[in-house]
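Hi! If you just cloned this repository, the fastest way to understand the data is to look at a raw example. We've pasted two of them here, unedited. The first protein comes first, obviously.
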Amino acid sequence: MSMLNGIKVIDLTTVIFGPYATQMLADMGAEVIKVETPNIGDVSRYLGSGKNGDATMGSIHLTVNRGKQSIALDLKNPEDADVLRALIVDADVFVHNVRAKAIERLGFSYESVKAIKPDIIYMHATGFGQDGPYADLQAYDDVIQAATGTASLLPRVDGHDRPRYLPSLIADKVAGLYGAQAILAAIVHKLRTGEGQAVEVPMFECFTSFMMTEHLRDATLVPPIGPAGYPRQLDPTRQPFPTQDGYMAIVPYTAESMVRILGLIGSNDLMATPEFAKAYEDGTVFSLVYTEISKKTPQHSTAEWMEIFAANDIPAMPARDLADVPQDPHLQAIGYFQQREHPVVGSFLESRPPVKFGAAPHAPLGFAPRLNEDGPRLRAKAASM
């Protein structure tokens, strides 16, 4: 039996933040009913190219909506709204990312949903906390990266002034992790007390917490004793090191490992120099060490260095291209990427859930649904309730 077997989730979320959160719940066995707009469906369906002429089955949709059911409902239509109300009757969780005023107009505010199911867990995946001046603003990953100072990180590293985004939907996905965590905590609370509740998961606040964990740094203290920004992460010399045939990560995280690395690359004499002594005193010794490593690593291939560092307990890894990750020997050995046959899309690669539960091994993952694939069955069920 899966970890969340018997938990029913009504999911009105779109794009990545909400669907990523509910994907994790579906992976753990929850029944997730994805409510989509008729004809078009969720934007996440169009993220990535479709296959076999079906644009609604984009490649990212295959992951972020896997294991869910799909029903298309126009909630401005009273009959469709009644179908959703019927589906809520035996639901445990109701999740949406519609702005507060709009969901209230549709008749699915927390109070309205609670009137249907008094112990419902109602999660609002918002852009910004609803008690602040940004409450009604739209939020996308770029907006949140800009607002949280994340776009200022790369300029701090390379000295180019223009703010830039990290090339990942990192704010969406981090907020999705917070969302899944919040739902699971609310489920635990409900199991203990019988109480449902409203849960707000604001993307801006979630990602601010995520980034400021290390980057508020010495500005944490009042008054500040230094600037914001974690120096080790912002050190321009902390980059993958060149080898004879590529690049690799090498981590001299402690003073002891730094000494070992310098010995392994033939740079023991650096530690006896005045330059090293001054850098150690100034707190910039790792920059000096990174620079020295980059001078010596071209002497050997990545594979040779990997063998040397593994034998001496030094953290290191090849710097791979994105396209090469599915061929990683560790991931291949554990069967992380699995080739499956989707009934509509055909062959595709699927990432297995990364977390293992000893008490309840993962059941086979369901496929991402076609738009309204489960609509007729769910409408019939709603009519019988």
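Ok, and the second one:
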Amino acid sequence: MLGSIGDIYRDRLRFVLDVARIYGDVAQYRVAHMRMYQVNHPAGVGRLLHDNHRNYSKDVPAFGTLKLFLGNGLFTSDGDFWRRQRRLAQPAFHRRRVAAFAELMTDATEEMLERWQARATLGQPLEVAQEFMRLTMEVVTRALFSTSVERDIDKIGRAITTLLDDVTFRFTFPFYPPLRVPTPRNRRFLAARATLDGIVYRIIAERRNQPDEHEDLLALLMEARDEQTGEGMSDRQLRDEVVTLFLAGHETTATALTWASYLLSTHVAVARRLYAEVDETLKGRVPTASDLPNLTYTRMVIDETLRLYPPAWITNRRAIGDDAVCGYRIPADATVSISPYVTHRDPRLWENPESFDPDRFAPERSVGRPHYAYFPFGGGPRQCIGKGFALMESTLVLALLAQRHELHLVPGRRVEVQALATLRPRYGMWMAAHPR
């Protein structure tokens, strides 16, 4: 009666990998009353994300859960409304605009490393997953609001953590009672959302009443105007985009940095090569946006981390009309699933796919690789708008960290991936920081 639910809950990652290994490029299975179509081949992924993307909607239960938190922002909206919002938001993420946030990122990282110094001196371990969550929250909050939320940053952090944990819970247990049922969990969710909304709407109102000069993302979003109508975003639209950016700029980047630290701690030769590049390129100074083209191996470490542990490891779409994908019929209203975690491990596309090998992203080894063999940020018109921001932040943080510390796993601590809304370490990531 329940289809593959039991197998999925026992080991979600193993299930989707086995589906691809046993059944090939396109596979069908049942989850309770729903029939799922899992598309694994790059050509099929490209069909969904690019070639026929207008036929695939985000009107699926997983995105309904996210809408409870994000509203109708870029990540969850569809159709003409999404296209308008994307046009309005795109200028804020131009490469030149993003580069202006580099100093903000390194300042926040230096503050984190200063906090680490006392722990490192005493030999006390760090739970780096939480440390990176705190760092990326600091970065995205400053980028969105500059200095206008210093008194509220702790409230924002607690509210976002509560909301993300609840979304993760509902992703795992989709049959939990809806928000109108006053369970303790639902009351916590509503209170956290009200706290976040109160802060965001207050800041928007202050900016509307006193439009002073600001150089943050909120200012750029408020200045954006529709080319056809001349209209800007409403307060509600601004709220939804701001909260979406909290999610995109917080959880995913922190998770990527956590797994990068783990992989470097277990691959000594890779770590030494990273240290050598950082030392040679920076010569002891703090990295800037202009250093990014010279931190090529650092970026390859990030790319390979995102191949093995893509934070947004799976996504679903609903087929609006019938389609053919890799020679298989996808009926209208079908739920279709694609997973970078699966495609990134296809042995037809990647040599020794389970190994950590940043050199596979060297130009000479990337020639001829299918475009959608690698898609940690999605693809097509709906590719993550914050991709440049996230890659710059990850590269700068990793370079600055490698310049100051070596991270080593604490002996005896289990490391196991947990497939929730993102790929988190199930038991945290406990590491010791040793000064370099």
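That's it. A detail worth noticing about the second one: The CA atoms of residues 84 and 163 lie 27 Å apart.
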